[in-house]
Amino acid sequence: MTPSDDTAPTESNDAETLSAAAADPVEECRRELADKNDRLLRALAEAENIRRRAQRDREESVRFAAEAVVRDLIPILDNLDRAIDAAKAAAQTGAIVDGVELIRREFLKVLDRHGVARYSAVGQRFDPNRHEAIARVVSADTEPGIVVNEIAPGYLLRGRVIRPAQVAVAGAPDEDAA
User: Fold this and answer.
1) Alpha carbon distance 84, 89 (integer Å)
2) Whose CA is closest to 140, among 178, 102, 95, 85?
3) Quick one: which of 37, 84, 109, 142 could link to 170 by a disulfide (CB 3.0–4.6 Å)?
4) 55-83 per-position pLDDT tens digit
5) What is the pTM of this model?
6) Cα angle 90-96-100, degrees, rounded to a multiple of 5
């Protein structure tokens, strides 16, 4: 067999395949239709995903629309707490202190009705997602990493942290100090 004999059958097979494809325009149209149908289905699925994502974003926006207002109101609640604590420390238990306590309780009820919850961190393991460490307290009694004091409580809006609790965290006594 000569080298030209090896290539001759291959060239004729390629020519036959090309002529068969050109001779069957119906099959070519079917392939194009299947390809376009596949692209249409993908585009429709993507459009549905975008619609669902937009709906979810709208719902979340409505759920957390009050977040900015709540952030602005929390310092007022902190000041009410401080006023009550200062009055109690000064041994004042008059009608004004009772009135401020009543206002504070009503304020907390209104926030609760709108999905705001106050939480305490004392005794819990420090969690950077829910706590903001303000101080470290060296303690041989308490396990390191446990919250031992709360400077300001934390607040959640429908489970999302609005303000982390500001806390003091126990730390191990320094070994070189001994």
Assistant:
1) 9
2) 178
3) 142
4) 999 888 887 888 888 888 999 999 998 88
5) 0.62
6) 95
